[in-house]
Amino acid sequence: MSHLLSRRDCASGPGAPAQKRNLGASIRLGGLTVSPPVVLAPMAGVTNAAFRRLCREQGAGLYVCEMITSRGLVEGDRVTLSMLAFDPTEEVRSVQLYGVDPVYVGKAVEILCGDHGVGHVDLNFGCPVPKVTRKGGGAALPWKHRLLGEILESAVRAARPYDVPVTMKTRKGIDDDHLTYLEAGRIAEDAGCAAIALHARTAAQHYSGDADWPAIAALVDHVDIPVLGNGDIWEAADALRMLEQTGCAGVVVGRGCLGRPWLFRDLAAAFAGEPRTALPALGEVAAVMRRHCELLAELMGEERGCKEFRKHIAWYLKGFQAGGEIRHRLGLVSSLRDLDDWLCQLDPAKPYPIAELGTPRGRQGSPRVVALPDGWLADRDTVAVDAAAESAISGG
Predict the structure, then answer these.
(1) Is residue 281 within 8 Å of 349, Cβ to Cβ?
(2) Phi and psi torsions of 352, nearest 5°
(3) Measuring CA to CA, which of 164, 221, 358, 391 is 20 to 30 A from 315?
(4) How confident is the model over 239-289, as pLDDT tens digits?
C-alpha cells in the first residue's frame, strides 16, 4: 500500500480487514471506558480546564489537559504545576506528558498518578516544531527506537501500581523517507501501552496537506492494541468515515473544535446513530461564546479570563458576517459586561456559514525540511537526547 495516497483514495479502507474494523460506541483503554470513542487533543493555550468543561457539556469523551513536560513537573516548575488545573466535574483526569529521559518520565507519571489523581496519561511524540526537533525531541524522537521503548516502558511501569492506562501519540515519521509509525506502534504495544494515536502526517508536513488515512489503516493491521486516528476531523461525518475506512477504534479531535465545541455534541449524536443536529445560528454561537468566557473567568479571574478569551473570537465568528467594528471590540473585551454589550449587537438569526463546513481551522502552514541534530539519521540506537529538547510546546 502506498502511504502517499490521500484519504479520498481510500474508498473502503484498504488494509483494514473486516474483523478489525470497529464502529462501536466506546473504546477500552486498560480499565477505562471512553464512550463515545472521541478524544480531545491537547492544544497549548486552548485546552485548559475551562475549555475542557465547555466541550464536555456538549458531549462525552476523553478530554486531555494541556501538555506538560516531565522535567518541569519533577522539578516543581511553577508554570508546569499551574497547568495541572482540573474542573470539579472532570471524572477522569487526563494529562498529556512529554519527556526525553526515561527516568524523568517515570518519576513524572508517578507524581501525576499518586499526587494529582490522574486517571490517564498520554505521551506525546508528535510535535514538529523546529526548536523541539532540532534537539531530537518531539516527532524526531521515535527515530531512536531504543530510547522510545525505554521511555514508554518507564511510563507504563510507573503507572501500573495505580492501574492507570498509558497511551502514546505520534506522527507517521520525520518525512516520507523516514517513516517510524509502524515500528513505534509495535514498540508501544510491547511496552504495555493501552493504545496508540496516529496523526497521519509526517513532521515535514506540519499541519499542511491531507492527512494520510491509509497510514492509519496500515497501523491498525500492524498492532493488536487500539489505534486512534487523528487528522482532518472537521465534522462528525469525518469521524465515522475515518473509522469505516481505516478500522481505527476511535478518533482524536484537535483543530476541528476551535470555535466549534458543539462538534462534540455532533460526534456524540453520530456515534449514537442519532439524526444530525441542526447547525447553530449566530445567536446560539454567541451563547456558547458567553459560556466559554464565563468559564475562563471562573478559572483565572474575570479580567484575565476575558483577555484569554480574545484569541477565540476569530474562530467562533469564522465565516459569519458580523461586522468589522463588532469583531474589533470583541477582541478587546476585558469584562463580561463588555462581552455582553457587544454580543447582543450580533444578529442572532444569521444562519451558520455553510461554506465553512469541512474546511481546515487553526494553523496549517506549509511543508518544510525538518530541523534535526547533526548526524541524527545515521544512528538509530542512541539512548540519550539533549535535555533542551524537552520544551513546553505542545502539538502533534
Answers:
(1) yes
(2) -65, 135
(3) 391
(4) 999 999 999 999 999 999 999 999 999 999 999 999 888 999 999 999 999
Three cell numbers written together for 80: 508546569
Largest separation between any pair of C-alpha atoms in the chain:
61
Say if residue 370 is in the same domain as residue 324.
no
Is residue 127 annotated as a catalytic residue, yes or no?
Answer: yes
- Say what the pLDDT of residue 195 is: 98
- CA nearest to 207, candidates 396, 371, 6: 396
For every residue of 304-352, DSSP letters joined together read HHHHHHGGGHHHHTTT----HHHHHHHTT--SHHHHHHHHTTS-TTPPP
Burial class (CB in 10 A: 0-12, 13-18, 19+), 253: buried
Its domain, for residue 350, covers 282-356
Give the residue from 261, 337, 289, 234 showing the smallest Cα distance to 53.
261
d(CA 20, CA 326): 50
What torsion, rounded to 10 degrees, do the Cα atoms 205, 249, 41, 31 define? -140
Nearest to 38 by CA among 186, 314, 248: 248
**How many other β-carbons are positioned within 10 Å of the β-carbon of residue 57?**
15
Do 204 and 110 fall into the same domain?
Answer: yes
- Cα–Cα distance measured from residue 208 to residue 393, given in angstroms and rounded to the nearest whole number: 19
Q: Does position 193 have pLDDT exceeding 90, yes or no?
A: yes
| C-alpha R_g of the chain | 20
Are 125 and 231 within one domain? yes
Owner of C-alpha cell 472537521 = 234
Is 183 a member of any domain? yes
Give the amino acid at 190: D
pLDDT category, 16, cuts 50, 70, 90?
Answer: very low
107: in domain: yes
Which residue among the candidates 113, 127, 293, 306 is catalytic per the annotation? 127
* Contact present, 363 and 207 (Cβ < 8 Å): yes
Q: Is the peptide bond before 36 cis (omega within 30 degrees of 0)?
A: yes
